[in-house]
Amino acid sequence: MLYYSGFTRRIGDVDDGSTVTDFLPAERARGITIQSAAVTFHWPPQGQGAINTGKQDGPRSHQSHTINLIDTPGHADFTFEVIRSLRILDGAVCILDGVAGVEAQTEKVWAQANSWSIPRIAFVNKLDRNGAAFAKTVKEIGSRLKGWPAVCQIPWWKGGKGQFTGVGDAVNLCAMKWEEGGDGKSIETFTLDKLEIEDSGLHLEIIKARAALVESLCGYDEQLLETWLECEDDSMAIPPQAIKDSLRRCIIDGSGKLIPVFAGASFRNIGVQPLLDAVDDLLPDPTQRPDPEVSLGSIKGGLKDLMSGRLAISPVLQKSLAKKPASRNSLVSLIEGCALAFKVVNDLKRGVLVYVRVYSGSINKNATLWNTSLHVTERAQRVLQMQASDAVELSYIGTGQIGVIAGLKYARTGDTLVSIPGMSPKTGPPPPLNNLQLKPIDIPPPVFFAAIEPNSLSEEKNVTESLTLLLREDPSLHMTVDDESGQMQISGMGELHLEIARDRLVNDFKAKATMGNIEISYREAVLTEGISHRFVLHRDVAGKKGKAACEAKVEPLLPHFPSEENTVIRDGNAVTIDVLTVVDGEGQPILPPELSLSCIKAALMNGAVAALARGPRRGFPLHETHVCLTFNPSMDYFGADTSPAALSAAARIAVQTVLQAADDGDSIALMEPVMNVVISCDESSLGAIVHDLLSARGGRILSLDSDENGSIPASEGLKVIDVERIYAPPDPFASIDGTQSSGPGQLRQITAIVPLKEMVGYLKHLRSLTGGRGTFIMSIDNFQRLSGPREKAV
Known about the structure:
The chain is of the alpha+beta class and 794 residues long.
């Protein structure tokens, strides 16, 4: 893409380690993407094709568009990189392997894209490889991604059975042939008439593909149905632009109900330019996406509604707006720019770089930015546009663009940055604008743990600082310090994730440390309802007299726990805080003057959370535990000595005492993480893998599928796809009945629940069982109680 758009002068290759977006040494050594990288280019290249006049007369792909491309990883361990990139995208291209088809991790990322309603198109790659099966992949798109595949391009095999040489275009009714062994720039285009002489088989197949494409689109788009009826039911007479417009209308809502499918082989440089045209023609620009969701404290709504004044705002803000006549009706003149920080990178030359997506206005160079999550102001010293590892200086980043701000000290992933001219650097914008937040990015919980040991005491500070930088870059990594041993522990999404973290720590940050064995994060849980206990704290807290009391009780958290007003669910536990209050004549609660209701609840919550962080049995955090805290001002309040700090300490000790009593009565169980594992293997290895999971690893098999059966539940409103009705051109290597030849080589999929402890280092074992062909992905399922023999082993 970068080569054809004129951005680079040569084509990079993963195998040679010469790619632009995979620039980290670890990425080049392993041949995989680890960190998402952003590149901006123009398609068609500026100066080619029609000039972008803003008129939408011809195809959009004839006008030069600015494309911000983000290359994301495919490995399950780096799923957070995908999540934070999806959060800010307007559209996506899903690249599928023509040999492997729809893989398990593809389904996972597809489901994430569904949750953000990202419009998508699919590109079936690697069709030049032996065993490539375009038809099989198309049917898997229907069965496993639960969307109707609209085949826009079909592969052109030499002589119908031979080498992959080009693609047939069902939209523009033509075929494109690429020069063998060339750089992909010389393309020979055949109209249908010419194609009939060149390859009559492909000519007939394109006519079939066009009829199938129109038929499937008419089921989703009434406008095209009317055009089809006007053309007297002749699918060949419909103009290509009408089909492009219809495809765009069908995918722009991001529901994934219809999936345009394109074909190619990027290693042979086939099919890339038509894919870029499809990006221009079908995917939306920032103005065509839904209004970004924002919250101002308890007020929620759209960013455009807020800017135009349609969203109800607080009287305090209205008063401050009333002083500025220009801003009386809208906030457009008040808020200069609003952006979301979605990635932080520590660059050795440029320092900390914060990647942002601007949703409103612009972020100018040297602008003062208010971080609404941390309530601090920072200055945007430099504004850059990243080209993978290179950068271009800009004066501003405009609406809808992705850029980088250099020199921010505090910004983290998911923070909202607001630029307001004339804002006080200390107090920030007037409330509630100081709490204006775009929808944040969810961080998945860690799964794998390892110990980090500095080589000497003098290195400890340097290692801690390097780890802090690493954690700011990648929030899916977590660091904790064990209270008893003083050992630093790092946790992440998987073995490879921690291995890469160690490499970066040692090689990039030059930290002198070693990483210990991977440890599993166990949990503890309460089995029976405990007795309640009231604790009175009477001691100095932070150098001041402190006296406070509260009553605590613990019990197991039920699977379908009813959500109550006073209950907060946190880290798999529920904390219910009941403040007994006397109500005055107007129905308002009578509380101590210096302690508000929210202050009491926050203090008690902090105490309970601190107590739940270490269990009484082995010091593991508690899980599926329900804590009830009761505070009675008439008994538990002791005048000025009852401070929030004293209340927190009283709550913590009260909960710890009740938990210890439960442990004394053998009512605390150990829990271990169990994983949802999806293993792909061929038929011949199936028996050995199932036997190994059941007998040696304490696993439970949920299902055994051949790869035709999907595992993503269909989203609401999507039709159940009948795979038999999906059109796909015949594969040259398929058997007579049109299916891929089955037998020992047929791919099977095993879905199982297995304890995480048994999955450490499993990949090497799986490869030895399957002759190097087996792959697996896993995600945390839940925590389950340890059985007797397994508990002894732990």
